[in-house]
Amino acid sequence: MTERFELPTLSTEKDYDGDGFLPLYTTTVTVDGGAVSHGRASGRARSSDGALDLDLRMPAELGGDGRKTNPEQLFAAGFAACFHGALSLLARQEALDPAAIRVMATVAFGRAPEDGGYVLHVDLVVRWPGVAADVATALMERADALCPYARMAWRGTPTTITLAT
Predict the structure, then answer these.
(1) Is residue 2 part of a domain?
(2) pTM of the model
(3) Nearest 5 degrees, angle CA 67-CA 106-CA 39?
(4) Which residues form the domain of 142?
(5) DSSP H or E segment with residue 73
(6) Residues 83, 44: one domain?
(7) Which is nearest to 36 in space by CA: 55, 52, 53?
């Protein structure tokens, strides 16, 4: 039997006009370094609510054993899920069935030619059989403006780094 879930009640309207950021949900994930004191190579990621608790390992392409998940996979999953949610919400508003929507996120970890630093490239591919390409494309453009992961990718995201004392 398939478990039933309630759809989110989030809107696509500009229904907030406050002066600052209004958090609707906050989560904290803590990563330790594990056996070799390196979060990517042997770390463990745990969410404050206990829903996420997994080992992290380097992918084989970066010298690891590739037998556990890595940050790029987690980022790809989050991006794809968030974009899917935004597109699904918009589809329902247009009386379209989102059941066939599939979002594939490919995240590439690499080097930036400008400074040699590490960067990510993201490619999203949406499959939506049965929906005309022009209709799907228009909704994907709206989802791109709605999805916070896409907004982060295009605009950056406010980030603070603090040493706890």
Answers:
(1) no
(2) 0.90
(3) 40
(4) 70-158
(5) helix 71-93
(6) no
(7) 55
